[in-house]
Amino acid sequence: MEPLILLESRKKAPTKLAKNSKIYKTIIKAIQDKKGEHIVSLDLRKINESVSDFFIICTAGSGPQCKAIIDNIEDQVLAVCGEAPYKQEGRQSLQWVLIDYVNIVVHVMQSATRSFYNLEEMWSDAEVSGHND
Questions:
Q1: Which domains does the chain have, with CATH numbers?
Q2: b vs e for 20-33, b when ≥16 Cβ sit within 10 Å of the residue's Cβ?
Q3: Strand 127-130 relative to strand 104-110, pairing
Q4: Residue pLDDT, tens place only, 26-82
Q5: Residue 133: what pLDDT?
Q6: Using N-to-C axis directions, what is the helix angle for 22-33 and 63-81, rounded to 10°?
Q7: Dihedral over alpha carbons 28, 29, 33, 39 (to 10 degrees)
Q8: Taking 60 as the threshold, does the pLDDT of residue 8 lie above it?
Q9: Could you tell me the pTM of the whole model?
Q10: Among 101, 113, 109, 103, which Cα is nearest to 73's?
Q11: Running DSSP on this structure, what letter comes out for residue 17?
């Protein structure tokens, strides 16, 4: 993870992202295409302390599925939106992979890791939307 000083210096883009933005929809579809489970988005736009507008969280059943999901997200976002991730973490262990697109941070987690960290509870002030088919 980034040192705290880097996180503090990183600014959100001046315009807020919307749920109907191309990158938001592309990420959700890329996860669904690879059968990610329990897909939720947390709307962080009204939380002043947040470093992004949205978190998108999903569960992967295994390491290979986690890799397939993150590879598909990166491929689709690059193809459709022309954007590469600002930062990435967790690709070695595939327990919790974070893909940072600045305004959207994607968390692909295996079930035990997701249960343990419970990001939805940690960010309980955020509006939660489900995205399962």
A1: 19-130 (3.30.460.10)
A2: ebebbebbbebbbe
A3: unpaired
A4: 999 999 999 999 999 999 999 888 889 999 999 999 999 999 999 999 999 999 999
A5: 57
A6: 150
A7: 20
A8: no
A9: 0.85
A10: 101
A11: P
